[in-house]
């Protein structure tokens, strides 16, 4: 029986790449999207073209009050499309960039970052635990910015740092169910994240390329296959780890 992976925020960027990588490795995928249903449907079509099953469900990863409704919708999709009541892997990927210096960060910006990147990860995982199969996997996305500092990223990085600590506690508490939990921390990646700063701004791209041992900023294909590999049985004994995938950034 194929494994089913739920990846949040997978209509674009790293989430999309991870979804396609999981499908190429033989898994089925459920993706979530915030607003762009058309792009989500394209990802579903791409996954199906690889011979795998897929579905897309709308989710605002920062709207904790809506998680119960999302879980009910997920139950319906699992039953109708797969004839199952459980999924196997959860990848907490959804996120956004909203950067400001500590002296100018507003409360609304702060709350938005924490709600999506930390509070949402906690309560979505909590909500979905009854639907996650024993022996499953959870991957939480963090950032290379928890290990190094870059002006304007303080609150974003702090929220990701909280997720890294949470990952260890999840691994401890969920171990009795055979569920492994790890953090993947990408370095600077060329996507539309944060307005496409690393991808579209040559100056920013060069800053990160120059501080990376392999001499360039990352691309989605550097990250998605690694996430898929972490979900495979070949890595079943990896647990409670922070795995940085950055090409050797700031070493």
Structure description:
The protein is built from 8 helices and 7 strands. With 251 residues, the protein is an alpha/beta fold. The chain has a single domain (4-245), classed as NAD(P)-binding Rossmann-like Domain (Rossmann fold, 3-Layer(aba) Sandwich), CATH 3.40.50.720. A 7-stranded parallel sheet has the order 3-2-1-4-5-6-7, with helices on both faces. Strand 1 (4-7), helix 1 (13-24) and strand 2 form a beta-alpha-beta unit. The termini are far apart.
Detail the topology: elements first, then pairings.
Blueprint: E1 4-7, H1 13-24, E2 28-33, H2 37-49, E3 54-58, H3 67-82, E4 87-92, H4 107-128, E5 132-141, H5 154-174, E6 180-186, H6 197-200, H7 202-210, H8 224-231, E7 242-245
Parallel strand pairs: 1-2, 1-4, 2-3, 4-5, 5-6, 6-7
How do you describe this structure in short?
The protein has 251 residues and is α/β, with parallel strands linked by helices. It has helices spanning 13-24, 37-49, 67-82, 107-128, 154-174, 197-200, 202-210, 224-231, and strands at 4-7, 28-33, 54-58, 87-92, 132-141, 180-186, 242-245.
